[in-house]
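User: Hey, quick favor. My workstation is busy. Could you predict this chain's structure for me?
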Amino acid sequence: MNPFIKVVFFNLKTTSFKGPLRLLQIGAVNSFGRKIFGAFVHPGPISPKALRGSRFQIKGNELHRDDMGALMTRSVEEALLNFMDCLNRHARQGKVILVAHQCGFHGKFLLELLTKFNIPFRDTILGFCDSLKASRALCPGVSHKLSDMLEEVGLPGGTENDAVSDAGDCLNICRCLAGQNGMTFLFFIRRNSWYTDLDEFLKRIFGSCQ
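Assistant: No problem, here it is.
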């Protein structure tokens, strides 16, 4: 692997699509599966309906998750700044490719938030890889949900619905798909069919490179 390119697998947990989308959790692992970032985010005043189907609840003024109780949370801006600091440390003198399952959502929402808070990202992010697109291309005719793809590639199905765990599941799917299709890891990550460089990704979101 090019020593100046680091690959990071990430996942965002958000409120439901009913109403304004709010960030709840950011999780990330490196290409070896080690957790490098995890943060819970307090969404502020929201309707309970926005948390339906998630593992999160607002009790009083605290964010709770069903398996962890009350959570230590950060503001959205603090969590984003911390995440970008983590990526910069991880990249050192290089840049980072961010990988997510359904990266069209996760990457788009991340860049929208970074832009909203004027947090720099151009010197850090090289591009985005979408394991959902890779799954659809390499495993046609099956369910491509994250948990189902784990089983499809021969791994135990994931059920945690946690950002860090889901980022790790995304890594495992990519490693298996690469191996099963005779590709090196970095070749798989940067294959044009499911990799998009930052400028092109920004054009799709904002209509310009920002």
